[in-house]
Amino acid sequence: MSATRFFEKLHEDASRLERLLRLVEKSPEDEELLNTLRAVEKRYQRARSELLSQAGSNQLDVVKYRVINRYDDYSVGTVVDSLSGFQKAFTAVHDAKINGPKDRARFSTQAVTQTKLNVGYTYPGSFGFVLSLENSRDLFDGSLDKSIDVFSDYLRIECSDDAIECTEQIGLAATSTLFKWVDVNANSNNSVDYQWRRSDEVVLGELVEVERFHTLQSVFLQTAKLEDETEEHLGILVGVDLQRGSFHFVTGEDLDVRGNLSSSVIDEEFIVPKRYVARLNVETNVTPATGERKRNYTLLSLSPVNE
Predict the structure, then answer these.
(1) Are residues 247 and 200 in the same domain?
(2) Tens-place pLDDT, residues 251-281
(3) How far is 289 from 222, CA to CA, in rounded Å?
(4) Which residues contact 273 (CB under 8 A, 6 or more apart)?
């Protein structure tokens, strides 16, 4: 039997089990009902074990994802946003691992396809989902193993230095997408119990308590990195406002710079428009939570270019 058919069978059994559990709650002394419940539970567990065995031979990872809300608020938004955030975060991390860190959340078709989580069935009696995806393996690693490991590393972050290091390793796009998953669960007061059973039978994952989400949320909201560099660019000075102390400079590299005049150049005379080599101080504010990288430019000097 194919893994797909096992999922269908489990979904059918899980639905029947759900109905039986509700009936037993109303008639807890109905012996015939209890016997039927036991039989269906046994069949459900047997099918689940067969699925895990089948998943390994088909190089499928099986992921259990359960939302546990502190106030028993299981609205559609609470559950769906958590699950959707998990999917987007996993895609973002995998894209960073195969394509390198990036600032903008534009993920490759390969990353999206390889990380697509398929819903197999839901847990009877809880807000949990069993998901699957292909994780092809060679003798040493699966294609998704390193991306899976990033989740564990991210959940261990304790301070701003850790958050900055994470951002440098996987990029602003992946870090901010991971933060959105954290933010959704923190704001909804969710704990998340996720278990990732790889096709080589290694089991990863953990119960992420709502307090951990709150800690991560707080750390990232307080984290920013200031980078300070000096750059030189050949281009055209197209505008100067001495009253405001500002300038406008464009280059052939599609760099359009607007910023402040430094005290060393504010009293100089400029020809506009004219080609110069501009020496600029570039102050960059990196915010991992929002994925923003804001640059502030200060003009330090201008050297005329002989035409």
Answers:
(1) no
(2) 987 889 999 999 999 888 889 999 999 999 9
(3) 9
(4) 236, 237, 238
Domain boundary among 195, 221, 247: 221
Q: For residue 158, how many C-alpha atoms fall within 13 Å in the half-sphere facing its CB?
A: 1
- Token pair listed for 86: 């998990």
Return d(Cα 148, Cα 235) in angstroms, integer: 45
Residue 139: its pLDDT value, please? 47
Nearest to 33 by CA among 48, 17, 10: 17
Yes or no: say if 213 and 67 are a contact pair by the CB < 8 Å rule: no
Do 86 and 204 lie in a common domain?
yes
- Residue 4 pLDDT > 60: no
Question: How would you classify the pairing of strands 256-261 and 292-304?
Answer: parallel
Spatial distance between the Cα atoms of 18 and 127, rounded to a whole number of angstroms: 12
Q: Which of 33, 55, 77 is the last residue of a domain?
A: 55
- Positive or negative CA dihedral for 146, 151, 155, 161? positive
Q: Which domain holds residue 36?
A: 1-55
Q: Note the pLDDT tens digit of each residue in 159-168.
A: 999 999 999 9
Residues 257, 295, single domain; the answer is yes
Nearest to 268 by CA among 306, 233, 237: 237
Could you give the CA distance from residue 193 to residue 94 in angstroms, rounded to a whole number?
Answer: 21
Can you read off the two tokens belonging to residue 305?
């270019």
Statement: residue 31 has pLDDT above 60: yes
Dihedral-angle region of residue 72 (phi above 0 means left; psi in -120 to 50 means alpha; beta otherwise):
left
Residue 188 has pLDDT above 80, yes or no: yes
Contact 208, 192 (CB under 8 A): yes
